[in-house]
Amino acid sequence: MNATVRIDAMPRFASALKAIESLKPSEPLYLVQPEKFAAAAKTFLTDFPGDVLYALKANPHPVAIEQLWKSGIRHFDTASLGEIEIVKSLYPDAICHFMAPVRLPGQAKAAFEQHGVTDYVVDSEAELAKLLAETGNPKKLRIFVRLVASLGGALLEMSSKYGCRPEEAAKLLHKVKASGAAPCLTFHVGSQCLSPFSYAQAIEIAQRTITMAGVEIAALDIGGGFPTSYAGQEAPPYHWYFDMIKEALSNMERPSLPVMCEPGRALVAQGISLVTQVVMRRGDRLYINDGIYGSFDEQRFAGFDEDYPATGITLDAKGKAKTLTGEKRPFRVYGPTCDSADVLPRPALLPDSIANGDFVLFDAMGAYTVSSRSSFNGYYPDAWAMIGD
Question: Are residues 47 and 196 in the same domain?
Fold first, then answer.
């Protein structure tokens, strides 16, 4: 976050139009909407049958963490010592869970000794041995063995890099138990998972693994992957996921087993919008001040098929911001860097009247935007404002 901008001093406006009208931003501007953060957190805290861990990788910015903390989130899925330090520097009482299956040497030791982290993930005997050696006190640990959950239904799979098959997981559970730590299981069905049934399938795989191992586990972490609705891609309602998960858990041999989940995108995506400015229009091309190396990095990977239904905004002769209307057409959108790969993979649908100096508003930009932006070519979006109540 820009060191000159304090969260409590962030400018506030009634709407995106008012923010643009007042700030006339020449750099990309993130617009935070606290009520959307609060609504997302409430959904999970109220309806999910267990602890809700915010997956920090989706957005580690202090603004996002603050909004979720204010909304009642107290547990955090952290994947590195750096992420743990970000959370703990803001909220020392936060409960961090080190849920990366492979950690850099010394990071588990520092997390355990300096920050009191007691939950860890492994998917190999080598990583288990390293974890036990670094922490030195297995009776204080819960160790989650990660299962492969390549079940389809997700835009981005999460099982080709991490996870083990049930047979191997059963052996690891035995080794965890023998060490004196509390054995647990976890999986990840994939990012932006549009199939609630995938969670039920993964829970059934977890139960088969438990039966095969003959080990009573202490907790089950069902991971993340909960989707959000993007334009042209409507996600199923969350109660479908929660109902499916509850039913699958009730069919386990221990229906009262403590469970956790790790939503990232679902908690932050809708809470931030992005204002960009048209630097130049050339026919059906728009050159804007943000791009693939900034807030749009994830767009290179996600399997979205529809055009971006972005909103065009202009300032009239009196400086008043208004939404552009009229017939829309698809524009190819280029970012500000000198790299020809800096182009959005799909067109943006905008009014044909859009011109140099106008603004383009993109909604649902809270996930995997701030976290993956770079300073390539000297561009780094980091201007902020709040809108709404």
Answer: yes
Task: Give the contacts of 72 (CB within 8 A, at least 6 positions apart).
Answer: 41, 42, 45
Burial class of residue 206 in the structure, from the number of CB atoms within 10 Å of its CB (0-12 exposed, 13-18 middle, 19+ buried): buried
The verdict on residue 1 lying in a domain is no
Range of the domain at 13: 7-31+269-387
pLDDT at 221 over 90: yes
HSE, side-chain direction, 13 A CA sphere, residue 381: 34
Tell me the HSE value of 206 on the side-chain side, using a 13 A CA sphere.
35
* pTM of the complete model: 0.94
Task: Supply 266's token pair.
Answer: 């679902």
318 shares a domain with 289: yes
Give the residue among 46, 11, 12, 26 at the shortest CA–CA distance from 381.
Answer: 26
Task: Work out the average pLDDT over 170-175.
Answer: 97
Report d(CA 70, CA 64) in Å as an integer: 10
Question: Could you tell me if residue 183 is inside a domain?
Answer: yes
321: β partners: 315
The pLDDT assigned to 1 comes to: 43
What percent of the chain shows pLDDT beyond 90?
85
- The answer to whether residue 202 sits within a structural domain is yes
Establish if 2 belongs to a structural domain: no
Indicate whether 285 and 156 sit together in one domain: no
- For the four alpha carbons of 54, 56, 57 and 63, in that order, the dihedral sign comes to positive
122 & 23 share domain: no
pLDDT at 4: 43
Mean pLDDT of all residues in 149-174: 85
- Say which CATH number the domain at 157 has: 3.20.20.10
Do 208 and 274 fall within a single domain?
no
Q: Which of 372, 382, 354, 376 has the alpha carbon at shortest distance from 277?
A: 354
Average pLDDT of the residues in 90-115: 97
